[in-house]
Structures are given as C-alpha cells and as structure tokens.
Write a structure and sequence with these properties.
- This protein is of the alpha/beta class.
- The chain contains 19 helices and 12 strands.
- It folds into 3 domains: 308 residues, ABC transporter type 1, transmembrane domain (ABC transporter transmembrane region fold), CATH 1.20.1560.10; 161 residues, P-loop containing nucleotide triphosphate hydrolases (Rossmann fold); 73 residues, P-loop containing nucleotide triphosphate hydrolases (Rossmann fold), CATH 3.40.50.
- A hairpin with a 2-residue loop joins strand 4 and strand 5.
- The longest helix is centred in the middle third of the chain and has 53 residues.
- The chain is elongated and about 115 Å long.
- The protein starts with 13 loop residues before the first helix and ends in a 19-residue tail after the last helix.
- It binds adenosine-5'-triphosphate.
Length: 596
C-alpha cells in the first residue's frame, strides 16, 4: 500500500495536542461531565425510591406521594442525562469545528512546493474523515477517562483501608491489565492510522481519476482504476477488522481480569477469614468494592481504546500542521507606486526540491516599465518557472528576483501578488459564476470596471451567449467554456486586478486565428500601460514584443528584438523558423520536439 510521505518530523505528543483542542471548551466539558454524572446518580436513586414505594404499599399508606416523587426523579434524571449528552455532543462538534477551521487555514496557505509532493485527495480526507474521529474522543472520551480514573483511585484508597494485602492482589491484577493494554493500545492506534491512510488513498485515487476522467474512459482504464480503489478499500477494511479484534480483546481482558481478581481475593480473603486475620464483613465490603470497580475499569479500558482512534486522527491532522506555510509578512513598508513595475532577475539558480537537479543555472534579465517582454526557449528550459519565482510560489535557491528594486522575499506576500496579474498556461476556471471567476482577484471591482475588462478581453460575445450573462455558472456544474474562452476569462481576471506587472503563460495548444488575434490585441493593449511578460509560443506574439529573452536549459542565452535575434542567435532563428510552436512546421523538422 502506498502511503503519502507527509512527515517532516515525528509528531509531538498527540495526547497533549488532543487536550489542546479540547481545552478551549473545558467549561462545557465540565458541565457535560457533571450533568452526565448527575443523570447517573438519579439512576442510583431510583431503586431506593422504588423501595419506599413498596414499603408504603406494605404499610397500607398512600402511594401517590412516593410514586409522584419517583416520577419526578425519573423525569429529572432523563432530562439531566439528555442535557449532559447534548452538551458533550455539542462540545464534540465544537472541537471538530475548531480543528477544521485551523486545518482549512493551513491547507489553503500551504506553500505550492508542498502541494507538488502531496496528494490533494488525501489532504481532503484529513479535513473531513479524520476530524470527524475527534468528535467523541475529545469529549466523552476525555470525561470518561477522567471520571473513571477518579472512581478507580477512590475505590483503591478505600481498599487500602480495608485490607492492604487484598489491595496488593487487586493492584497486581490491575497491573496485568495495564501491561496488556500497553501492548494492545499502540496496535489499535497504528491500525486506525493505517485505516485512515487507506481512506486518504481512496480519496487521492478518486481525485486522480476525476482529474483525468475523459482520458481514463478513452483509455478504457476503468477496470484497472476500480481495482486500485478496491485495494485501498480492502486495506481500510483489513485495518478496521484488526481494530475490532484488538478492541474486543481489550474489553474481554478487562472484565476477565476483574473476575479473576474477584476469585483470587475470595480465595485469599476466605483463607484470611478462616485464619482469623480478617472479618467476614471486611471481606464482603472488599468484594463489593471489586464489583464496583468493574465498571470504571471497563470504561477506562474502552475510553483508552477509543482514545487511540482519536490520537491516530490527531497524528494525521498534525502532519498537516507541520507542512510549510506561506509567510505573509515582509520588510517592505514603502507606499506602492502606480507606475508599471520594474522587474529584475539576477543570477537566479533554482531547484524544485533538494533531491532534484537545478532548473535555473543563473538566470538574469531586466524588464522595466510598460511594454511587452517575451520569454522564449525550448520546452523545459525554465520559462514558466521564472513566473513561479516572481509570484513567489517558490523561493530561489540563490540569486534574487526584485520587484521595484525590492527582493520579492522582502515584500509582504499579499502586497507582492497584488501588483501582479497572472494568467496560467491552462487558465483554469473555478466552479462558480463567470462574475465570481472574474472578481476573485479583485472583489471590490465596480460594475463599470467589470464591463470594461469584459470588453477588453473580448468576452462580450460569451457573456451574451450565456443564459444568465455574467451570473451564469461555469466550470464543473455549469456551462463548459472553450480553451480560448478560458484563456480570455483568465486575462480579464488578471486585468481586473489592475496589475503593474502582467504575467501571461501562452496556451501551447493551437487557438484558432480569431482567438489568437483577440488574445494578441488584448496583450498589446495591456502592454501600452503596464509591464507585460509573456511566455511566448507563437511567432505573432514575439514579433510584437519590445524585448525577447531567449532561454535554454535554465540560462538566458540572448536578449534582443526579433530582428536582432534572427540575425544574431542560432537557437532563436531555429525557433522562429519553426514558428516557435512546432506541430504545424513541417518545413523545419529539426525544431520538432524542442519547443512546446
Ligand atoms: N513543480 C515541479 N516540480 C519539479 N519539477 C518541475 C516542476 N515544474 C517544472 N519542473 C521541471 O522544471 C523544468 C522547467 O520547467 P518549466 O515549466 O519552467 O519549463 P518551460 O520552459 O516553461 O516549459 P514549457 O515550454 O514546456 O511550458 C522542467 O524540466 C520541468 O520538468
């Protein structure tokens, strides 16, 4: 079974962490515990009240008074018990809510690099399935553990007064339970964690399938994918059965131990009574106490077992807490300017992960003020990575990326990204309305600004065609829009941010001539007033650029205009001859496969 390698370091004291989650609600926990306890006490009072009723019957007196009193106690007990259960359950839900809020904040603020190596489906299961496991453990589990321990200690103290010898025997038996539980509980914890990991794996597998649903179907890969899912489901079942086995064993051991202690105490105590070293009444009291102990011990064992489930969940939740988060702070405090941004990269080296080779080997170029800069180069030369470094999705390994002369690491992250509009290569749209898709980067944009970007990004036709205009749903549950439209929605979204630097990763797939012309017009229009950098895959884009940066295997090979580079750079000449995008360039077969 493949598991997600999430752990950066061993999680710290999950029990303490569980208590931290629950501690915030300690007042409600105490209230719930006390109410449940009182509900139980009224249960004890009922036999006594029944005795009074029967006595009153025997004496020929009126039974209505005692019966009414009994009814009142029964009702009171039921109400208090129900209230206690509700308070504990509500507190459990509150604990889960607190943990989920915390987790959501962490998940959404994860560094991009962390998400590269994780499986989103597994992360989702941590937020949904694992947090659910905490519900009862963090409340009734903790209160039961507490009350049973108090009862156990109380009984032991009384036993010590009655007979130290019999107490030693009892403690010996409790020790045996303790040791056995010490062996069993970690196994329950591990099995639960593995079962939850298998659930996470199922989530990841489903996400993988849904992410490439058409490809899976077109490849007739359903059967193989179902088998993978089934393997994960069976693994989860296997671990669940193991938990059931260990839990049954621990419950049986607990009651068996109390029963065996009862027999041993009876034997030894009986001997002591026969020898005259103990009163019969002391022995009877001791045995009664032993029976009384049965319940707290079993509850204690059950709670400890249940706790293992919660701790397994805490470990999985904590693994997310240990992941790298983005740090929104920065040192830059100067007011922001409205001018087009000044961008410079100096000697940038970068690798995606310490175990991977360098992607950039000293990239450097400048692009300042309004205008169009095109990044070109063979596929894999590191063009998109340049954008990722400017947006600070990743930090450089060495060298610097500066915006307005300030290293991007010194910018407060939100302020940095507020300067930039970013259009990704596959320009994803989010599930929701077209309006929500456009305004997500600029929630305070006015209707007039919205209409303006719709016009600029040549989206007017699309808006008119959609059933509810801007308020039509697009994405998964709405209208599916074409690749070219997606690209223009992404551009409109980026423009609405009024960026001082616009980063555009051109789609590598062919757009039709009308779409391509529309995109180019939008780009040139934007370049008149802002700094636009585009990863260019089309000749029409580069010929319009003020500056072209030619990249090759993680370095900048040449910088210049189209005319200069056609004259002076072999690679650029080849790329241009191949129209940059290769599939339609039969006349330059050598370029095929080197560009994307
Ligand atoms: N998230 C990532 N983790 C690890 N390696 C990556 C990651 N993204 C890109 N790479 C690698 O970094 C190198 C540069 O990728 P990049 O996407 O920057 O190239 P590109 O020039 O934009 O290519 P293309 O023109 O095909 O889009 C490639 O070898 C790629 O496999």
């Amino acid at each position: 079974m493949e598991h997600v390698a999430l752990l950066r370091q061993a999680p710290k004291a999950p029990l303490r962490r569980l208590w931290e989650y629950a501690r915030v609600h300690w007042r409600m926990l105490v209230l719930g515990g006390v109410l449940t306890f009182l509900g139980g006490i009224t249960g004890l009072a009922q036999p006594l009240m029944a005795k009074y009723v029967i006595d009153a019957l025997g004496e020929g007196g009126s039974v209505s008074g005692p019966i009414l009193a009994l009814l009142a106690v029964v009702l009171l007990g039921a109400v208090i018990g129900a209230l206690g259960a509700f308070v504990l359950e509500r507190t459990g839900q509150s604990v889960v809510l607190g943990v989920r809020r915390n987790l959501v904040g962490r998940l959404v603020r994860l560094r991009v690099g962390e998400l590269d190596r994780l499986k989103p489906g597994d992360l989702v299961s941590r937020l949904t399935a694992d947090t659910t496991l905490l519900r009862s453990v963090a409340t009734s589990g903790i209160t039961n553990l507490f009350t049973s321990t108090v009862l156990l200690v109380g009984a032991i103290v009384i036993m010590a007064f009655l007979s130290p010898v019999l107490l030693l025997i009892t403690l010996g038996m409790i020790l045996v339970v303790g040791v056995l539980m010490g062996v069993i509980l970690p196994r329950i914890g591990r099995a639960t964690q593995a079962a939850q990991a298998s659930l996470g794996e199922m989530g990841s597998l489903l996400e993988r399938i849904f992410g490439a649903f058409r490809t899976v179907k077109a490849s007739s890969a359903e059967r193989a994918e179902i088998e993978r899912l089934d393997t994960a489901a069976v693994e989860s079942w296997r671990k669940g059965v193991a938990v059931a086995g260990w839990t049954a064993l621990s419950g049986t051991l607990a009651s068996l131990t109390v029963n065996v202690s009862f027999l041993v105490v009876l034997g030894v105590g009986g001997g002591m009574v026969a020898a005259g070293t103990m009163n019969v009444s002391t022995l009877i009291a001791f045995l009664l106490l032993l029976f009384y102990l049965m319940e707290p011990i079993i509850t204690l064992v059950n709670s400890a077992t249940e706790l293992q489930t919660g701790l397994a969940a805490v470990r999985r939740i904590d693994e997310v807490a240990d992941l790298d988060q983005e740090n929104p702070e920065g040192n830059r405090t100067e007011p922001l300017s409205a001018r087009p941004a000044e961008l410079s990269l100096t000697d940038v080296t970068f690798r995606y992960h310490p175990d991977l080779p360098l992607v950039h080997h000293g990239v450097g170029f400048e692009a300042s003020g309004a205008g169009l800069t095109a990044l070109v180069g063979p596929s894999g030369s590191g063009k998109t990575t340049v954008f990722s470094l400017i947006e600070r999705f990743y930090d450089t390994t060495s060298g610097s990326v500066r915006l307005d002369g300030t290293d991007v690491r010194d910018w407060p992250l939100e302020a940095l990204r507020a300067q930039i509009g970013y259009v990704e290569q596959d320009a994803p749209v989010l599930d929701g309305t077209l309006r929500a898709n456009l305004t997500m980067a600029a929630p305070h944009a006015t209707e007039a600004e919205l209409q303006e970007v719709v016009r600029t990004a040549r989206l007017t036709d699309l808006v008119e065609r959609l059933p509810d205009g801007l308020d039509s749903a697009i994405g998964h549950r709405g209208v599916t829009i074409s690749g070219g439209e997606r690209q223009r929605v992404a551009i409109a979204r980026a423009l609405l941010r009024r960026p001082r630097l616009l980063l555009m990763d051109e789609a590598t797939s062919q757009l039709d001539a009308a779409n391509e012309g529309a995109l180019k017009a939008v780009m040139l229009e934007a370049a008149r007033s802002t700094n636009v950098i585009v990863v260019a895959h089309r000749l029409s884009t580069v010929t319009s650029a003020d500056r072209i940066v030619v990249m090759e295997t993680g370095t900048v090979r040449a910088v210049g205009t189209h005319a200069e580079l056609v004259d002076g750079d072999d690679l650029y000449r080849d790329l241009a001859a191949g129209q940059l995008l290769t599939p339609e360039t039969p006349e330059t077969p050598e370029a095929v496969g080197t560009t994307s």
